[in-house]
Amino acid sequence: MLLEYADASESAYGAVVYMHSVKEDGTTTNKLIGSKSRVAPIKHISIPRLELSACLLLAQLVGKVRISLQVHQAKIILHTDSTIAIAWINTPANQLKPFIGNRVSKIQTLTANFEWKHIPSAQNPAVIISRGVNPEELSSLTLLWNGPQHLDMLELNLNLLNLQLPVLMNFICRNLKKSLISA
Fold first, then answer.
1. Do you know which InterPro entries this protein is assigned to (predicted)?
2. Model pTM?
3. What interhelical angle do 98-110 and 47-69 show, nearest 10?
């Protein structure tokens, strides 16, 4: 199974891919397969839009990893800590403003058969890429090299999402295209 993570900050955004395998004795391992990062544009872009750009970068990266490793039947789970980006990805692209809709359309095309899930920022290894790290600390960051260890903790926390739903819906509605309906 491939596990992928995306994250963004005001200074950068990035994506990271792991291979998750289960050994015959039942133990599991995650190994870093690849990562990609981009510097955030000089022009101010909101964090949700940067998170969406990170999701697009992740979708492109996983396509390249699947081709390189010839992994076509593996279960693909993509993770982000942005509930807004997940909501946009699950919205028809033609209902969104152009910047968002264009990226959502590409993401939907590239990840049509994949699953997007929310992950808390503290468990998201892509946070290390987006926020940076001192070179001296890099070799000791097990979260980056091995990914999160407890996959059961990565499941969506519905109670948290339900608390954030009104705020989330308000933000999404502000980014929908305005449509004129006449009779």
1. Retrotrans_Pao, RNaseH_sf
2. 0.80
3. 20
- pLDDT > 60? residue 158: no
Complete DSSP assignment for the chain: -EEEEEEE-SSEEEEEEEEEEE-TTS-EEEEEEEEEEEEPPSS---HHHHHHHHHHHHHHHHHHHHHHHT--SS-EEEEES-HHHHHHHTS-GGGB-HHHHHHHHHHHHHTTTSEEEE--GGG-THHHHHH---HHHHTT-HHHHH--S-GGGGS--HHHHHHHHHHHHHHHHHTBPP-----
Residues paired with 8 in a beta bridge: 13
- Return the structure tokens found at 173: 């509605």
CA distance 154 to 168: 20
